[in-house]
Every structure is written in structure tokens, then in C-alpha cells.
Design brief:
By secondary structure, this protein is of the alpha+beta class. It has a domain of 116 residues. It contains eight helices and four strands; from the N terminus they run αααααβαβαββα. A four-stranded mixed sheet has the order 1-4-2-3, covered by helices on one side. β2, α7 and β3 form a beta-alpha-beta unit. α5 crosses α6 and α5 crosses α8. The protein is elongated, with a radius of gyration of 35 Å.
């Protein structure tokens, strides 16, 4: 009995000091329902109440931060899982799969005007350009010396043209002797790239490729037939 009175006195003393139920529980391990019974007659000062409310808000904020952290970790884990799943499904393409992938890519980004007389493709993504050139070689049997490229730049980057051409030549494996005269856009940009991330747009043409262009049009028509099934 005396032990219980000592514990009760300790609980009340902690409450008088302004501690919350959770804090008292952590100090004494007494059930909160018992703590409430023992301290119900103790009135806290306005300052103590304000401190407790501030602590509650801090705990809520800590809880929100923990939740956000967990959600972020789950999001990153999910993204990584799906990224690896997608990568594993496409990292090894058969010859037919590569043919279809490149033809579909050309359908989206290639030159399809009826007046065209050769294969033409343009994009600003270096990896997409590399994929397309590999596809030309592997699927259509195009030799690299038949590939002609043309760089399109905003005129505000005119002084960097040589450096950007060098970069594209390294990316594609196409010698600069196969680069035609750069085309400059005169649009005034609000955004300026201060690093080496700007590469402009590269146009990739294949010389003497009318028959391959006609074949490409056949690929695209074949894709369209799938819409009717």
C-alpha cells in the first residue's frame, strides 16, 4: 500500500511539473487510465497548458515527417522495382523485337512526309539517337558511312557549335565529315543552359534509302492493321 502511495505521489508530482500523460507513463509505466484518475484534480497553469499543446504539435509534426519519409522510401522502392522489371523485360531483344521497336520509334519520330525520298529521324535524346542508329545497322543493314547528320541549335549557342558537334560525333560514332551545315533557330529562349546538358536536336538521314523508306511505310501500315483487330 505504501508503495502505491509513493508511486501515486510521484505521478502527481510529475503532473504538477507540467508533464503530459505520455511523459508520466514513460517515467512510471503506470497505465494512463490510472494516471488520469490520480491527477484529475490537478489544474495546470496557462503556461504549462501552452507547453503541452506545443509538445502535441511537435509530436504531430514528427509523425507527419516519419510518415512522409516512409511513403518516400516506399515510392523509391516501388519505382526501383518497376524500373528493374521493365529493364529486365526489354534488355535482350530478339532480332524481330528490335525490328518492331525501331519501326515503332520511327513511326513516332521519323520523317513521314510523302515527299520524303530517304529515311529521316530527329531527336534531342542522345540515347534514343544511339538506339536508332544501332537499329539502322542491325535491322536494316545500313552502313555508318551512309548516315548523314545535321545539328539544329538555337543561335544563342552558336559559339559552342564545335563542342556540341564533337559531343554528338562521340555519342553516335559518326565522323564529323558526315555532318552537314548546322541549322540555327532564331527563337529567343527565356531559359539558358549554363552547363553541358544542351545538345540541340540531331537530324539523322540515310543516303540513297528510298527503298528502305518504302519498307518503313509498309511497317507503319502493318502497325495500323492491328487497330482493326
Amino acid at each position: 500500500m505504501r508503495h502505491k502511495q509513493l508511486i501515486k505521489a510521484k505521478v502527481r508530482s510529475l503532473r504538477i511539473k507540467g508533464l503530459s500523460l505520455n511523459q508520466i507513463f514513460s517515467h512510471t509505466n503506470i497505465p494512463k487510465t490510472t494516471i488520469r484518475t490520480w491527477i484529475k484534480d490537478i489544474e495546470l497553469s496557462a503556461k504549462q497548458i501552452a507547453i503541452l499543446r506545443e509538445r502535441v504539435q511537435e509530436k504531430l509534426q514528427e509523425g507527419r515527417i516519419r510518415k512522409q519519409k516512409i511513403q518516400k522510401e516506399l515510392k523509391i522502392k516501388n519505382e526501383k522495382t518497376l524500373m528493374n522489371k521493365g529493364k529486365n523485360q526489354t534488355k535482350k531483344l530478339t532480332r524481330r523485337e528490335l525490328l518492331i521497336a525501331g519501326a515503332a520509334l520511327y513511326w513516332g519520330e521519323g520523317f513521314k512526309n510523302r515527299h520524303e525520298h530517304r529515311l529521316g529521324f530527329c531527336n534531342s535524346d542522345p540515347e534514343m539517337i544511339r538506339f536508332y542508329i544501332k537499329w539502322l545497322e542491325k535491322s536494316l543493314g545500313v552502313k555508318k558511312d551512309k548516315i548523314i547528320v545535321r545539328l539544329t541549335l538555337n543561335e544563342s549557342y552558336k559559339e559552342r557549335v564545335r563542342k556540341i558537334e564533337d559531343c554528338w560525333s562521340k555519342i553516335t560514332g559518326i565522323p564529323k565529315s558526315q555532318f552537314t551545315k548546322t541549322f540555327y533557330q532564331r527563337t529567343q529562349w527565356k531559359k539558358q543552359y549554363n552547363d553541358d546538358s544542351y545538345h540541340g536536336v540531331l537530324r539523322v538521314h540515310v543516303g540513297d534509302s528510298l527503298n528502305k523508306l518504302l519498307l518503313m511505310r509498309g511497317f507503319i501500315e502493318g502497325f495500323k492493321l492491328n487497330l482493326e483487330k
